[in-house]
Design brief:
Blueprint (H helix, E strand, L loop, with lengths): L1 E9 L5 E10 L4 E5 L6 H8 L7 E6 L2 E2 L5 H8 L2 E4 L11 H6 L8 H5 L5 H13 L15 H13 L5 E5 L7 H18 L2 E5 L3 H7 L2 E6 L2 E6 L6 H8 L4 H10 L6
Parallel strand pairs: 3-8, 3-9, 6-7, 7-8
Antiparallel strand pairs: 1-2, 1-4, 4-5, 9-10
Length: 262
């Protein structure tokens, strides 16, 4: 479904954010990217949809090479990649409904989008999505009236209304309290399962990754140090990725948690 071949990103400073990363993600798989700050997690996500241009290597989405596309062709392919941001990236003066419908901008013409004249089918789908995440009653609220968890749910709906094949999720819980963080991770994973979506979730919280995802990729200095199931994150593996720490305590906390989703 998604394939990365020898993906490299070197910045003008000479810093190498990604070092020949090879990765394959099948349809419907949800994986977490973990690793210390500066490991290349956000860069990897942004190189996939070319918000950051890779220095070399190739990215394939369902057989289409994204790295070789013109800007016009790339815009069309980006419809198939929904992005969920750490800081929500909502337009605060717009309503919840308008923010969700902004996910359809790649499908409607310029004047329709400028005048916010979306097809009724798009409006109906926006209501269905808002209802699914528990926000149908807030469709007419301005985004700046929402809590952090509510804003992230709007961001999820905006990504899903694109009808994507892949979700790229960048630190979805970084600004949220622990309970809301679990709710958001659970919601993303449930929606991916319902829709058969693949997802890459960049996340700092190792325990959340262990609780919810099917597969974990551990990055360090731009290279893959671990690729396997959450239960493979032993103290030795976590030490390799992050450095010395009491990882037994983290693993025990996950094992003892009653909210773990299989």
């Amino acid at each position: 479904m998604l394939r990365l071949e020898k993906l490299v990103k070197t910045y003008k400073t000479g810093d190498q954010a990604l070092k020949a990363v090879d990765l394959e993600i099948p349809e419907g798989q949800v994986l977490a990217l973990i690793g210390p700050s500066g490991a290349g997690k956000s860069t990897l996500i942004r190189c996939i949809n070319r918000l950051v241009e890779p220095t070399s290597g190739k990215v394939y989405l369902a057989g289409t090479e994204l790295t070789g596309l013109s800007s016009g062709a790339l815009r069309k392919e980006r419809r198939r990649m929904g992005m969920i941001f750490q800081e929500y990236a909502l337009v605060e003066r717009l309503t919840v409904m308008e923010n969700v419908l902004s996910g359809r901008l790649g499908y409607v013409g310029f004047w329709r989008s400028f005048l916010r004249k979306f097809p009724q089918s798009d409006v109906d789908e926006a209501f269905r999505l808002l209802d699914r995440v528990g926000l149908a009653h807030m469709a007419d609220k301005r985004a700046d009236e929402l809590s952090g968890g509510q804003r992230q749910r709007v961001g999820i709906c905006r990504a899903l209304i694109q009808d994507p094949a892949l979700l790229l999720v960048d630190e979805p819980t970084a600004s949220l309290d622990p309970k809301t963080s679990r709710q958001i991770m659970r919601l993303i994973c449930e929606l991916c399962k319902e829709r058969g979506l693949a997802a890459i979730i960049n996340i700092h919280d190792v325990a959340l990754a262990q609780m919810f995802v099917q597969r974990v990729i551990g990055l360090r200095f731009g290279a893959v140090e671990f690729d396997g199931p959450p239960e493979g994150l032993t103290p030795d593996v976590l030490t390799t990725i992050y450095g010395e720490e009491d990882w037994e305590a983290t693993i025990e906390a996950v094992d003892d948690d009653e909210e773990v989703v299989e």
